Amino acid sequence: MAGKPSATLELKVAVSQIKMPQLGESVTEGTVDKWLKREGDFVKRDEPLVEVVTDKVNAEIPSPFEGKLLKIAVSEGETVRVGAVIAQIETVAPTAGAPAQPKPKEAGAPHAEVPAPPAPTARAGDGGDRQRLSPAVRKLAAEHGIDPTSIRGSGMAGRVTRDDVLAAVGGKSEAATPQAPPQQAAPIPAHVDGGREELVKLSVMRKSIAEHMVRSLATSPHAWTLQEIDMTSLVRYREAEKDRFKARHGVALTYLPFVAQILCEALKQFPWLNSTWSDEGVILKRYVNLGIAVAIPDGLIVPVVKDADKLGFTDLVRVMNDLVERARNKQLKPDDVQAGTFTLNNTGATGSIASQPIINQPQAAILTTESIVKRAVVMDDAIAMRHMMNMCLSFDHRIIDGMMAGQFLSALKKRLEEWTPGSIRL
To answer: Which residues are catalytic?
Structure first.
């Protein structure tokens, strides 16, 4: 008695494309800094594959597939648009084949397998628009009378981003009022004098930081101010509690979380410091996403503590410590560096006593805490030794004037100088 044809187990081999991810809402391109695998290497799913640098993040990108790395399409140091193919991976997956059938007796032409038609791409105007357009992008397009379905998205999977809409708005304006193309500054040639000078090539991250700094100064009219703070009460508390805090929570107790919590309170009192400039008006943020500047070997990176104003002190310490550690180990995720509303930088860690930081666009201001220095000051007509610290503020003079900046720093000064253990919001 003949048995039924048995099912066969087939191996399906496919070539999967690795594309440049979008590492941030406004990021349109990325630079391959270093490949962590070579062509021919076997790559596991979620294994770090490549280091990518933008002006917002320096991150290791994990492989979304498992298989052999067939081709590296983008060289180290090369910058490409978001969504561009940077590598190809050969993936193999077992599939249950159809029951084996006897071969036909007649010889015929080989059967060509017809591939399934590709899934239709969602357009911004049909049922898939909410997957491709964020509410903010939809609102921006509506405000400027732009049809989102006419825009070619530069984001992941063709997602239309805020920059795409702004580019469309700019194109519309240029079509209505032709303008001469802007003149580009001529590149500065590198002249190296033999053995007395050395040309050190810029890292990808350093180039990105340089471009971001130049863009910030060209965008915002920077103004700067400073106030000195008596940190004596806080210094004494931290010295008395740091060992117990470390034993209880497993993380070091530094001065920065104290400043961060008080800063969040002050930003709720002075929302103009926690805002963004637009041509239609100033956008006040009713939440605080606090950027914490972190020094790494190649430069500076700013991970963001989301909704920092809602965190208790211990949670704030843990979140800040986690972000700093992951920033230094290149383990930040794209969401970790997005949507900051204000930036805090502890330049005092390097021994600085005064600094003039550059605003992290598109924010309105940036604050630095400087070194805490013990020195003699006059108190009630007497000389006393106190722990003093300068706080420096750079701000966008389109949004904030000197009086408001001074009032903001004065509020920080008052809160820090009058600080007591009961001030901690747990």
So the answer is: 397, 401
